Hints:
This protein is an alpha/beta fold.
Amino acid sequence: MKILVVGANGxxxxxxxxxxxxxxxxxxxxxxxxxxxxxxxxxxxAETVQVDLEGEIEDIAKAAEGVDAMVFTAGSGPHxxxxxxxxxxxxxxxxxxxxxxxxxxxxxxxxxxxxxxxxAIQAAPESFAPYVAAKHYADEWxxxxxxDYTIVHPGALTNNPGTGQVQAAAKVERGEVSRxxxxxxLFGVLENDTTIGKEFQVIGGxxxxxxxxxxI
Length: 216
């Protein structure tokens, strides 16, 4: 399977590309914004494609030609304004969904926020609410498609080393999860077709990722 990783230069994206490249059966195509970001992925033997997520759907669709799956790991980051949140976390996500349709890529995995319900938007702090709202509508857009989608809702992200063990279900208590473990979950999702059409929350836990995904 060839997998297009959108937001590959982010921390989750980098881990995911490494997991893909370390596998025997899959290869990654890393979608990056700047050419200087390519070196990391070339060292892993991964293909790169330079596309600005704030550009045109057609450019993203061209980047997705010939791939079997697309994973959206991009994010505007905590230090940007509401404008970037809309342009990346909402508009960027929707454009990749539409690009997947254009390119004939049926498998699509979305990294969302832990809770993107309407209630979560209302309960979020003022500074965080735009991000939750953006993710809410991006998730809704994906659910309304015929794509073979999976939506992953990670808890509070940390840079701790991955343990390979998580807790995953439709609803779990809030908690932390390492970015490396989130990437491992994404890789597991791509290898597990039983996750198609499903979404789940994930935090650190005591169950192996493989076993956790079997129970989703």
